[in-house]
């Protein structure tokens, strides 16, 4: 019986091109493996017309992989694909080494990067959910009952015990994360009461978000030329011209085929992105695949219900390009505002600050509105948003309210109570 080795960094990579896959994804896969700290021995490639239910790859390619593992004395085979538990188990029996799929690889990187208590809980939750479907391979000697006196083993009892322990641990982590989420929600409501908007940095991993965050706020967030260098979200205050201030949030980078377990586990963290007043979509301007990465980031934003949040496109790393200079473009014709800068050298940072100041100077409504007597629910909603600065009664029995609220939240309230037509006195 094959016993899985407990460690091993010498890796043989497997990247098969499926229908619709792009060859450039191979380089991203290699960068992921390097970020995990593995020693790459070789990369086995090829095209795959259909997925083999037993080994994912065909029998001929599986034998070629077995010979390569023996030749290089690899301790680990990493697939740039999602494998089923049975496929992992069958491949390990064939190759006589550990097998890791794309989801397991990303989970391992996240486990290395997590620093905060919340981040560690989120990673552990995702790992346990991933592991819960793969328990059986570690207990092959207990899978069957043995007959005869003294040979009747526990059989599936050990597996059931492990599953119960996993389920209990998952529930415990979810309870802890719910407490963290409640704390985040209280902090978010406090920022809303103070009318301090949150701006979230989003983008493909390694686009330079943390470097830009440090440049804008003077923070010392860890930044490196590697995938997922930053995992834990960081919030800092940013002061703008005209006595404006906002909260800048540095978030985890996105990537192609981000595992659903991670999206679910990091739901509380991603709420900072969904509830933000503005997104700074950081783009590596020197990357030839930048347009495709923009589409993939927008797809993830849609998955977490953040597609409607306004964006400013930040084309970073222009210091690596010869023909691109610092410039900015205001939002026009349905297109978001754009700025070209270098977070590394500081070029273009002032243009970005000016775009932020211009956006938020137009994004806050401060004026007086009159509500009819039947608009009690809308009045209550305005108070719930802590938007009312002063209140008096009108002769018709309604209310005259002095309010201060972001245009985005105000328009959302108007849409929610569209049967009521408030009269704006002096915006």
Query: What is the helix/strand order?
Result: EHEHEHEHHHEHEEHHEHEEEHEHEEHE
Beta-strand proportion: 15-25%
Using the CA coordinates, give the radius of gyration.
27 Å
- From the N-terminal CA to the C-terminal CA, the straight-line distance is 77 Å
Largest sheet: 7 strands, mixed
Instruction: Report the count of strand segments.
Output: 15
Biggest sheet, strands in spatial order? 6-7-5-8-9-11-10
Question: What do the pLDDT scores average to?
Answer: 79
Give the overall silhouette.
Answer: globular
**Alpha-beta classification:** alpha/beta
Determine the number of helices (DSSP H or I, runs of at least 4 residues): 13
Poorly predicted sequence stretches spanning 5 or more consecutive residues: 137-148
Helical fraction: 40-55%
Summarize, please.
The chain has 13 helices and 15 strands. The chain has about 425 residues and is an alpha/beta fold. It has a 7-stranded mixed sheet, sandwiched between helices. Strands 2-1-3-4 form a 4-stranded parallel sheet, with helices on both faces. The protein has a 4-stranded antiparallel sheet with strand order 13-14-12-15.
């Amino acid at each position: 019986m094959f016993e899985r080795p407990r460690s091993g960094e010498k890796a043989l990579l497997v990247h098969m091109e499926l229908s619709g896959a792009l060859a450039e994804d191979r380089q991203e896969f290699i960068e992921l493996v390097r970020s995990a700290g593995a020693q790459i021995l070789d990369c086995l490639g090829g095209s795959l017309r259909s997925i083999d239910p037993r080994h994912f790859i065909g029998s001929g390619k599986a034998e070629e992989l077995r010979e390569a593992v023996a030749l290089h004395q690899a301790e680990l085979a990493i697939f740039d694909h999602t494998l089923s538990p049975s496929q992992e188990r069958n491949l390990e029996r064939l190759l006589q080494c550990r097998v890791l799929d794309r989801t397991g690889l990303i989970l391992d990187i996240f486990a290395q990067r997590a620093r905060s208590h919340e981040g560690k809980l989120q990673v552990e939750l995702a790992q346990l959910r991933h592991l819960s479907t793969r328990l059986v391979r570690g207990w092959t000697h207990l899978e069957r009952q043995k007959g005869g006196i003294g040979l009747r083993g526990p059989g599936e009892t050990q597996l059931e015990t492990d599953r119960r322990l996993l389920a209990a641990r998952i529930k415990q982590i979810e309870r802890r994360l719910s407490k963290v989420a409640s704390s985040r929600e209280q902090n978010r409501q406090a920022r809303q009461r103070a009318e301090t908007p949150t701006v979230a940095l989003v983008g493909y991993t390694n686009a330079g978000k943390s470097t830009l965050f440090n440049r804008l706020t003077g923070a010392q967030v860890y930044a490196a030329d590697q995938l997922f260098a930053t995992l834990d979200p960081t919030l800092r205050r940013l002061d703008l011209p005209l006595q404006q201030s906002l909260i800048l949030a540095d978030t985890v980078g996105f990537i192609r085929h981000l595992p659903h377990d991670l999206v679910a586990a990091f739901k509380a963290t991603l709420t900072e992105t969904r509830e933000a007043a503005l997104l700074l979509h950081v783009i590596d301007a020197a990357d030839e695949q930048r347009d495709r990465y923009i589409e993939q980031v927008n797809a993830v934003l849609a998955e977490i219900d953040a597609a409607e949040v306004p964006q400013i496109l930040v084309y970073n790393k222009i210091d690596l390009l010869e023909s691109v200079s610092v410039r900015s473009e205001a939002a026009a014709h349905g297109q978001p505002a754009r700025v070209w800068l270098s977070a590394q050298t500081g070029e273009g940072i002032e243009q970005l600050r000016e775009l932020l100041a211009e956006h938020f100077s137009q994004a806050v409504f401060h004026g007086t509105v009159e509500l009819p007597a039947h608009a009690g629910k809308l009045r209550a909603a305005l108070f719930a948003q802590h938007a009312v600065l002063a209140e008096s009664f009108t002769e018709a029995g309604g209310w005259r309210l002095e309010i201060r609220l972001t245009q985005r939240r105000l328009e959302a309230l108007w849409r929610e109570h569209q049967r009521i037509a408030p009269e704006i006195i002096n915006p």
